[in-house]
Amino acid sequence: MIYIALVHYPVLNRRGETIVSAVTNLDIHDIARVSATYGIAGYFIITPVEEQQALVHDLTAHWLKGGSPNSDRKTALSLVHVVSSIEEAGSRIVEVSGASPRMIATSARVQEKCISWRSLRKDINEEKQCSTPLLLLFGTASGLSDQVFEQVDGTLEPIEPGREYNHLSVRSAVAITLDRLLGRSFA
Questions:
Q1: Residue 4 β-bridge partners
Q2: Where do the structural domains in the chain lie, given as residue ranges?
């Protein structure tokens, strides 16, 4: 089982300070849709801000409880779960699967405990036979804070390391990541 989390805290601002970033409607919808496309078991939106949690609940409830006859949108948004912390997302996964997830962070910068795309894709294919869930963490704003990298099992190598400009929208990063890890292999 693969889960993803969009982390709004703890993340960095442009000055490298730890902040809480704002939840956006586009991230909720677009990441839910790509999650449904690739068979993700759940999509966690992580924010400790109660008003932002309420926004996510209101938006998903609108679509899930008859806001539209669009069943595809309902399917995608049914994957969304809002939680206060990374630890709470991990606890929810344990409740569902009975096992603690392997947590892998993402970053536009090379980090310690770096895992290659090929290695993680191989691990995912092997783990389909076992019961260890995987939680992929994506940061908003200017990326995940250092404290997140200290608590994860590894960090996926950047999508395009060494480029002068390397600041994808998180929606794009999630789509590229899920396709590289779960999509058809053309090599």
A1: 43, 136
A2: 2-182
| Helices and strands: H and E segment counts in the chain | 7, 9
In b/e form, how buried is each residue of 12-40, taking b as 16+ CB within 10 angstroms?
A: beeeeeebbbebbeebbbbbbbbbbebeb
Helix, strand, or coil (residue 97): helix
Confidence (pTM): 0.94
Nearest-angstrom CA–CA distance, 96 and 92: 6
pLDDT per residue of the chain (187 residues) written in tens, 0 to 9: 999 999 999 999 999 999 999 999 999 999 999 999 999 999 999 999 999 999 999 999 988 886 566 677 889 999 999 999 999 999 999 999 999 999 999 999 889 899 999 999 999 988 766 778 999 999 999 999 999 999 999 999 999 877 778 789 999 999 999 999 999 876 5
Burial of 49 (0-12, 13-18, 19+ CB in 10 A): middle
Q: Does the domain formed by 2-182 have CATH 3.40.1280.10?
A: yes
Q: Is 2 helix (H, G, I), strand (E, B) or coil?
A: strand
